[in-house]
Amino acid sequence: MPELPEMETYKRLLSEQVAGQTVTTVEVTREKTINIPVEQFIREIQNKTVIAIERRAKFLIFKLDSGKSLLLHLMLGGLMYVGGKGDDLERTKQVTLSFGEKKLYFIGLRLGYLHLLTAEQLEETLSDLGPEPIDPSFTLETFLELMKKKRGALKTSLVNQKFIAGIGNLYSDEICYHAQLLPKRQANDLTEEDQIKLYHSIQAVLKRGIQFGGYMDVPVCKEDQLTGGYNEHCYVYDLEGQPCKRCGKSIIKDEISSRKTFYCDWCQR
């Protein structure tokens, strides 16, 4: 499932491709992907301009000049592609937005969705999310205050969207590795020194993920050379049995709260 770095990469690349452009046609091939009747969905989006694309946690928000927004959650298996005539992916599309000859395809949204919401509905939908970890307002002091109330395994805490928004299975393991902390450590047992290391690791790993374009393996458009670059830079995720980049011991695969988890039990403590 795409996490903060993947969605931030989508936001940046799609802003270059479609922000400021007007939707000329709308095609819906799966009604369950949207939240209102197809005819109404098409009527409310067609001839509207995408004035900006924003990200909140693992969501993308397509702001329309009507005052409403399209809220996208890709969930597992979802992706997007910008193409056109002779430039397409041979996959089932649930929704297609056309901007003249250019088309934005929403693909693999069997679990994900694209909902049209008013400003009030959008605010309510996102109201339970925790702070954005790469926002300037997310200071060390803010994080230490949040940690005072936290219980449970470190891995489980990091993927809790009400605690911190945008971190999922992959980057929680990468963050724990960077901070040299075992993901099964109890959050309330961490020393202040551990918490400070964890805070800086959250910042470093997520920004590194964005720098390398996240781990999605399908480009956003034909010219896209960025998306998916993080696959070559993982510290531990999906590297079971391979040598740790720090100490050379084998990476372990485990389960924490039914989530697959990767770590080095030699240099993570």
List the main descriptive attributes of the protein structure presented here.
269 residues; alpha+beta; N-terminal domain of MutM-like DNA repair proteins; Helicase, Ruva Protein, domain 3; four-stranded antiparallel sheet; 7 helices; 10 strands; Formamidopyrimidine-DNA glycosylase; hydrolase; double-stranded DNA binding; zinc ion binding
Q: Which runs of at least 5 residues are low in confidence (pLDDT < 50)?
A: none
Largest sheet strand order:
1-6-7-5
Total helical elements: 7
CATH topology (level 3) name of the largest domain: Helicase, Ruva Protein, domain 3
- Kindly state the mean pLDDT as a whole number? 97
Question: What is the number of independent domains?
Answer: 2
Largest sheet: 4 strands, antiparallel
Distance between the termini: 27 Å
The helix content is 25-40%
Order of helices and strands: HEHEEEEEEEHHHHHEE
Reading off the top of the CATH hierarchy, the class of the largest domain is best stated as: Mainly Alpha
Q: Helices and strands: which structural class?
A: alpha+beta
Quaternary state of the chains: single chain
Q: Any idea what the radius of gyration is?
A: 20 Å
Keywords: DNA damage, DNA repair, DNA-binding, Glycosidase, Hydrolase, Lyase, Metal-binding, Multifunctional enzyme, Zinc, Zinc-finger
Domain FPG-type: 235-269
Protein name: Formamidopyrimidine-DNA glycosylase
Family: Belongs to the FPG family.
